[in-house]
Amino acid sequence: MSKFACRMIRWYQRNISAKRSFRACRYYPSCSQYTLEAIQRFGIRGILLGMVRILRCQPFARGGYDPVPTKFTFHRVMK
Known about the structure:
Elements: H1 2-15, E1 27-28, H2 31-42, H3 45-56, E2 64-65
């Protein structure tokens, strides 16, 4: 399951995200890269972290640097 999710995210990054002329994500790393790193670090639970991150990425969010947490938590890491 997690390998399939990683393949789908990489496909999205190569075929859809790379062809846009504007930067849509308010966070760094981008939401797709964040989800990919979360899946690699936490397995299936990383998909949940990615979904929470995508829900946070909206027009009224401040954005900024938001790395994948070292321990599994839904709270944003502030640095």
